[in-house]
Design a protein that fits this description.
mainly alpha, single chain
């Protein structure tokens, strides 16, 4: 395809993304499902070129920024509290699904080697971070359930990729060593954490020293690809490296990124993530044509229908079996006196079982199957069937399932509520203003400002009429405002670092502080600077 034709096709796909997304929102339909179906329909329009996706390019282009986005905004404290449950899903459930799908496929297609059957199981076993994000951001879930789904989607891709590589190697070489596989997985995971952590801290070091906010946004964006490529170059898990780097950057961004950079970066990042997320789903549907052209539609219905249906059913049922089996085990342990374990309950367990959408990783890994792989065509068709079934069936109906089941948040309430955190910040601001409202002689220099923070009233407008005349006073005025914001931010971070507030409260209140800081910067002029609580105005 000529480069100009490729560019024109990209423009057509972006136009289709906007139209399909708008239609999905108007019809209250899941946008990812609409994009997937729309892309599949577009692929069969006449005069449109065929799309052949390079699996390595798909992984390196789409996966790092989307994983980074999830890790950056992840509720790290909550993920840490629920790590055993997350690992159960991200490792245990993936292994279990791989085994069950492999057994079912071998039962339905006895001539297919065992390792090839397990290779398909590894391809379809990990629920996808991109698919999960597209659904979870549109529903309201209990905090523990949200943490389990978010944490699982960040880690399980690494498990599926490692299992896939070993299954393919076993198929082509005829040998497999479980001990070597387990050791390799542990080393890949630990190495990925180490590399991602190093990239994350290196990124914060660089960001602290960049003078321009556009450079800071660009550097923070590049960190996702830097972590992934560094992990792959060092032969560890690039997926886990991205997640680790995202968590490090997300944890330190409150001290590293100024308010203007955070606001500008958030707007840019949301547009980038939306574009990549939407494009990947429409490309999944668009690439369906190439698979059907290769296999043949008649062959799909005559010789592949039964094993493909068996694989889809196995994928759906194994998640229910794993989740409710874990619930049974936790309930048994609790009845025997182990008070630390807390079952989810059937409501949350049902939602957790139903939220198993597959997406970009399943597609990319399936397309990377070697041509010499036995049953490659069947694996491609089965992988597409699993993506379609989980995104369209599960994803599109998840909101309805949540509404019908009405899960209850059984986690203990946070130690400090949103209102209490706001009160603590307001107190810190007032104390800072009281300390700065007097000049060197002890005279009250900013009475309106002091009254404002004492009563939490509106910003004074004394100098609004003639900023030029009162510019020195305006600068001093807003320097104190900025110092008060800095004191409030320090108190907010203290509450978060000590585990007193949840991550959602941190982000909500920090956004308010960012807006207040930006307002002071714009009203006070470009010369206004952010000073710490102990510095002079």
């Amino acid at each position: 395809m000529h480069p100009v034709d490729t560019f024109e096709l990209v423009l057509v796909l972006f136009a289709a993304v906007i139209a399909l997304h708008w239609a999905a929102e108007r019809l209250s339909f899941l946008p990812s499902a609409a994009l997937l179906l729309g892309g599949g329909a577009l692929a069969f329009l006449p005069n449109l070129p065929k799309v052949s996706l390079d699996p390595e390019l798909v992984l390196v282009l789409f996966l790092p920024p989307l994983l980074m986005d999830g890790a950056y905004y992840a509720a790290f404290g909550r993920l840490r509290r629920h790590l055993p449950g997350i690992l159960s899903l991200a490792v245990g459930a993936v292994l279990f699904t791989t085994l069950v799908v492999g057994l079912v496929l071998h039962l339905l297609v006895p001539g297919l080697p065992w390792a090839a059957c397990f290779a398909l199981g590894a391809i379809v076993s990990p629920p996808d971070a991109v698919a999960a994000r597209s659904v979870l951001q549109r529903v309201q879930l209990p905090r523990r359930l949200q943490a389990l789904l978010e944490g699982e989607s960040l880690i399980n891709d690494a498990t599926g990729l490692v299992l896939f590589r070993f299954a393919v190697a076993a198929t082509l070489t005829g040998s497999f060593n479980a001990l070597d596989a387990g050791t390799s997985f542990a080393l890949l995971s630990i190495g990925g954490v180490a590399v991602g952590t190093a990239v994350g801290f290196a990124g914060t070091f660089v960001l602290l020293r960049l003078p321009d906010q556009t450079l800071m946004v660009a550097t923070a964006t590049l960190l996702s690809w830097a972590a992934y490529l560094a992990g792959e170059a060092l032969h560890v898990s690039g997926v886990i490296a991205v997640v680790a780097a995202g968590i490090v950057l997300g944890w330190h961004q409150h001290e590293v990124l100024p308010a203007r950079v955070r606001m500008q970066g958030t707007a840019f990042w949301r547009t980038l993530v939306f574009s990549l997320e939407a494009l990947v789903f429409i490309l999944i549907g668009f690439s369906l044509r190439a698979v059907l052209d290769r296999v043949g539609l008649e062959r799909v219905f005559t010789s592949m229908a039964l094993p493909v249906i068996g694989v889809v059913v196995a994928v759906l049922l194994t998640r229910f079996l794993w989740v409710f089996g874990s619930e049974l085990l936790l309930g048994t342990l609790r009845r025997t006196g182990v008070s630390q374990v807390r079952p989810l309950g059937w409501r949350q367990a049902t939602i957790l079982s139903w939220a198993g959408m597959r997406g970009v990783v399943t597609l990319a890994v399936a397309l990377s199957l070697p041509n010499a792989m036995p049953g490659r065509d069947l694996m491609l068709v089965a992988s597409f069937a699993v993506i379609l079934a989980t995104v369209v069936l599960q994803g599109a109906s998840l909101r309805w399932v949540i509404h019908m089941i009405a899960p209850q948040d059984r986690d203990p309430p946070p130690k400090v509520t949103l209102v209490q955190a706001e009160a603590a910040i307001a107190h810190a601001k007032r104390v800072e203003v009281e300390a700065r409202a007097y000049d060197e002689k002890g005279a009250l220099a900013h009475p309106r400002l002091l009254e404002e923070y004492r009563k939490r009233d509106h910003v004074t407008e004394r100098y609004a009429g003639d900023a030029g005349t009162y510019m020195p006073g305006i600068r001093a005025h807003f320097d104190i405002v900025l110092a008060a914001v800095a004191a409030g931010r320090k108190e907010l971070l203290r509450l978060h670092r000590e585990g007193e507030i949840e991550d959602e409260v941190l982000h909500d209140l920090e956004r308010d502080l960012d807006l207040e800081e930006l307002g002071a910067l714009f009203q006070g002029g470009e010369g206004a600077e952010i000073r710490g609580p102990g510095e002079d105005s």
